[in-house]
Amino acid sequence: MALLKKTHPSITLPIFLLHFCAITFGATDTISRTQPLSGDITIVSKEGNFELGFFSPGNNGNFYVGIWFRTISKRTVIWVANRDIPVSNASSPELAITMDGNLVLNSLGAPIWSSNSTRKSSRSSTAVLLDSGNLILRDQYNSSDIFWQSFDHPTDTVVSGQWFGIDKITYEYQDSVSWKNQEDPAPGPFSYHADLVTMSQYVSIWNHSEVYWQSGNWTGKAFTSIPGMPLKSDYIYDFVNNSRELKFRWTTKDVSVITRVILSNNGQLQRLTWSNDSEEWITGWYFPAALCDVYSVCGPFGVCRTGSDEQCFCLPGFRPASSRSWRLGAWSQGCVRQTDIQCAESNISSAIKESDAFLKITNIKFSQNPVKLKVQSMEGCRSICLSNCSCTAYAHKQDCNIWNSELWDLKQLPNGNTDGSDMYIRLAASDHVVQDSEKKAHHLRLIVLFAVLGSIFMALCALSITVKMFQRTSSRKAFSDNYSLVVYDYSFLRHCTKNFSDRVGQGSFGSVFKGLLPDSKPIAVKKLQGMKQGEKQFHTEVRALGKIHHNNLVHLIGFCLRGAERMLVYDFMVNGSLDAHLFKDEKILDWNTRFLIILGVAKGLQYLHDECQECIIHCDIKPENVLLDVNFSPKLADFGLAKLMERHFSRALTTMRGTAGYLAPEWIGGLPITPKADVYSYGMMLFEIISGRRNSELMESGAIRYFPVWAAIRISEGDISEILDPRLSAVNFQELERACKVACWCIQDNEAHRPTMRQIVQILQDIQDVSAAPVPVFLKQLVDGEYISS
Ligand SMILES: *[C@@H]1O[C@H](CO)[C@@H](O)[C@H](O)[C@H]1NC(C)=O
Ligand SMILES: *[C@@H]1O[C@H](CO)[C@@H](O)[C@H](O)[C@H]1NC(C)=O
Ligand SMILES: *[C@@H]1O[C@H](CO)[C@@H](O)[C@H](O)[C@H]1NC(C)=O
Ligand SMILES: *[C@@H]1O[C@H](CO)[C@@H](O)[C@H](O)[C@H]1NC(C)=O
Ligand SMILES: *[C@@H]1O[C@H](CO)[C@@H](O)[C@H](O)[C@H]1NC(C)=O
Ligand SMILES: *[C@@H]1O[C@H](CO)[C@@H](O)[C@H](O)[C@H]1NC(C)=O
Ligand SMILES: *[C@@H]1O[C@H](CO)[C@@H](O)[C@H](O)[C@H]1NC(C)=O
Ligand SMILES: *[C@@H]1O[C@H](CO)[C@@H](O)[C@H](O)[C@H]1NC(C)=O
Ligand SMILES: *[C@@H]1O[C@H](CO)[C@@H](O)[C@H](O)[C@H]1NC(C)=O
C-alpha cells in the first residue's frame, strides 16, 4: 500500500478499496507471502489464458499443483510442480512463499516440493502466473528481477513462446519428461531435450540412456527430421545456436490458436492444436511415427507388434505390471510374471526341469545384447539357460544367445519378415500353455489317469484317495486350455466351500458361496435353484457359456452336476457387486471409475448381443449383477442364465420385482423380448450409477419417489448437474452429459427408439453424437401421481 500512496498521493481511499477488492474477491494472478494457495482456490493469469491450482488427474485423491489452459473445455495441464509426490486433499496442502523467497508446497506442515532457487531475494518475492503459462518468482517491487520460472523446469509440455534448450557452459538444460500415464504425472522413462553430445539438435531418450529419435539440425526453416513443421506464416521460429547456448522456441502469430508440444506417455513427441469446433486436441505430427520405434515402448517383458496394427502385448505367462496404466494405453511400465519361476539356484536336478518350461515366441527382433555362446545345438542352448536361474530367455541363431535379465524392447515382426528369430521364454510350468499336439497327449494321459484313479477309488473307497482326487482335479485345471470348462466333483466343491458355509450372495437364480481352490485361487460357486432341465441339455448350454470370454463378463471356470443339483463355478470378484458401492456410504466410487463401469458394462452387453455365436439376451441387468474386480473393472454376472432357466426365469423376475424396476414395458405387456429389453434395464441402471441412489424409494410420507422420470425431465431441459450424486466432487461434465443422454434414450417406451449397445458404446466413447431424448410417456403415466420431485 505504501507504493500506491506514493504514486497517487491525492486519491487514496477509492483506489485503496478497488485494489483491495481486486485482490480479495476477484481472481488474482499472484501468490504472495501473505496469500498462500490452498484447497479449491486458484490463481488466473491476467488475461485469463492460464490457471494454477490443485488438481487430481485420476480423481483418486492424489492432488498436484499444476497450470492448465483456462479457455478450453477439456482440462489440459501444461506443468506440474510436485509431479512424483502427490498430496491428498485431507492433509490440506498449501502453496506458499517462504521467508527465503522460494515457492514451497507444504503438506501437513512439511515441505514436499520447493522451487529451490539459489538466488535469494533481497527484499520479498512474489509468484506471478503470466499469460504465456509461465509461473515466475520475482522481486515484489522489481518485475524484471526474476529468480525462477516454471518454463525453465518443464514437465512434459512446451507451449508457444517457451524457450527450450541448453546452456553449453553450465550444462543446464530444459528436460521434457513423459507422464507415467494420463492419471499419473510421475516421470515416465522417456525424455526429450537438447542433444548433450552434439549440442546442435534435440533428441528423445529412454531411461536417459537410449536415444531413439533425433530432430536433426535446424535448416533455417525446420528441423531436418520434422518436415511437417507449420508454416512460417502462422508461426515465428527463434533458433539460437552459438558457443554459449542452443535454444529454440515457436510462437503462434494468432494468439487465439492454442497449441502445445508434448512427450506422450508412450514416448512420442507430438504437436497438438485445440479445435474449437470439435472441442478436442488435433494431433499435427508425432515422432517417431511408428510406435514400435520408441525404445522399449512396451516396458519390461512387453512386446510391440509391428505392422499396420501396432500395439503392445505381454509375453505369454506375463501380465501388465499396472493394469490401470495398460488400460489407459500407457505401456511403459511393462509386464510381470503371473507365476514366479520355480528355479532353485542351489539344486539343479531333474525336478527343476519339470517345474520350469520354455515357451517359443516367433519372429522377435531384439536390440538388447545377449550373452553369445558357441553352442551348436538348440538343446545345448536350452539346457544352459535352464541350468542358470538368472537366465530369462534364449534364442538360437547361429550362436546361442542368452539373456540374464529383464527383457526390453522386444518387437514381433509380421509374418513374412525374416529379420526376427524365435525366442524361448522361461516360464513356470503352470503358465506354460501346452502346445497343441502336446495338449492332446496330456489330455489322453489325464483321462487314463482319472480312469485308473476312479476304479481304485471305487475298489478301495478310501478317504485318503479322495484327497488325491482333489489334487488331480486342480492339476487338471492347470492343464486345461482357456476354452474348456472343468467338471467339478460335488464333494470337491463342498470341501472348497467349507460345506457351503460362506454365502456371499442370493440372486434370482440361487445362492452364491465363496470357496478356495487348493491353489488358493478364490472362486464363487453358484447353486442354481429350481432347475428342471435335463442333464444333457444343461451340459450343452453350459459348454456354450464356457466359450464366452470377454473382459467385462465374469469368467465361468466350471460346473458341477449332482442329481437334480446344478452348480456353476466362477472367478471370485473381490470387490463384490456394484450396488454395495453405489448405495452404501462407505467408500464412494469416483466419477472416473463410474464412467469406466458404465462403459465396461456396455461393452460386455454389446459382446453378448452382437459377437457371440448366438445372441444372448441377459434379461437381468441391475447393479447386483455387475461385479467389480480388484481394479473396480466391471464384470457382468449371470449372463446366459435366463435361457438356462427357461420359463422359470420370467416367473422369478415378475414375482421378484414391482413393475417399475428395471423391466422394459414389453416384459409387462407380454411381448417378445429382444436385446432392446437389456438396453432398457441398462438405462435404468445408468440413472442409479449417476445419481448414486435407487431409482425408486419409498418416502417417509408413504409415496414412492421415482427418480428416472424426474431425471429425464431435467435432462431434456439440459440440466444435468442436479441429478448427479451429490457426494461426487470432480466430474467430467462431457462424460456425464453423454451418460445422461444415453440413459434417456435407453428408457424410451418404443424399443425401436432405443439405441443398440453398439451405438451406446460409440456414444460413450464420443465416436458418435447424440441429441437429447424425449421424456418417455409410458413411464411418466406409470408413475404419475406417485412421483415427488425431491
Ligand atoms: C477436500 O475435502 C473437503 C472435505 O472432505 C471437501 O469439501 C473439498 O471439496 C475437498 N477439496 C478438493 C479440492 O477436492
Ligand atoms: C530441492 O532441493 C532439495 C534438497 O537439495 C531436493 O531434495 C529436492 O528434490 C529439490 N526439489 C526440486 C523440485 O528440485
Ligand atoms: C531490477 O532488477 C534487474 C535485474 O536484476 C536489475 O538490473 C535492476 O537494476 C533492478 N532495478 C531496480 C530499480 O532495483
Ligand atoms: C536405467 O538407468 C539407470 C540409471 O542410469 C540404470 O541403473 C538402469 O540399469 C537402467 N535400466 C535399464 C533397464 O537399462
Ligand atoms: C548437424 O550439424 C553437425 C555440426 O555441424 C554435424 O556434425 C552433423 O552431421 C549434422 N547432423 C545432420 C543430421 O546433418
Ligand atoms: C551450432 O553451433 C555450433 C558452435 O557454434 C556449430 O559447430 C554447429 O554446427 C551449430 N549447429 C547448427 C545446427 O547450426
Ligand atoms: C476459440 O474459442 C475461444 C472462446 O470461444 C475464442 O476466444 C477463440 O478466438 C477461438 N479460437 C479460434 C482459433 O477460433
Ligand atoms: C536337491 O534335491 C534333492 C532331491 O531332489 C535333495 O535330496 C537335495 O537335498 C537337494 N539339495 C539341496 C542343496 O537343496
Ligand atoms: C548365471 O549367469 C550369470 C550371468 O551371466 C552369472 O553371473 C552366474 O554366475 C551364472 N550362474 C551359474 C550358476 O552359472
Automatic annotation (TrEMBL):
Transmembrane portions of the chain: 446-467
Compartments, record wording: Membrane
Keywords: ATP-binding, Disulfide bond, EGF-like domain, Glycoprotein, Kinase, Membrane, Nucleotide-binding, Receptor, Serine/threonine-protein kinase, Signal, Transferase, Transmembrane, Transmembrane helix
Annotated binding of ATP, by residue: K527
InterPro entries: Bulb-type_lectin_dom, Bulb-type_lectin_dom_sf, Kinase-like_dom_sf, Pan_app, Prot_kinase_dom, Protein_kinase_ATP_BS, S_locus_glycoprot_dom, Ser/Thr_kinase_AS
Keyword rRNA-binding included in the entry's annotation: no
Class of enzymatic activity (EC top level): transferase
Assigned EC number: 2.7.11.1
Keyword Magnesium: no
Pfam families reported in the protein's UniProt record: B_lectin, PAN_2, Pkinase, S_locus_glycop
Signal sequence coordinates: 1-26
Domain Apple: 343-428
Gene3D superfamilies in the record: Bulb-type lectin domain, Phosphorylase Kinase, domain 1, Transferase(Phosphotransferase) domain 1
Residue span(s) of domain Bulb-type lectin: 28-150
Bilayer disposition of the protein: Single-pass type I membrane protein
GO CC terms: membrane
Gene Ontology molecular function: ATP binding; protein serine/threonine kinase activity
Example of a GO biological process term: recognition of pollen
Residue span, Protein kinase domain: 498-778
Reaction equations catalysed: L-seryl-[protein] + ATP = O-phospho-L-seryl-[protein] + ADP + H(+); L-threonyl-[protein] + ATP = O-phospho-L-threonyl-[protein] + ADP + H(+)
Family classification: Belongs to the protein kinase superfamily. Ser/Thr protein kinase family.
Name this polypeptide is given: Receptor-like serine/threonine-protein kinase
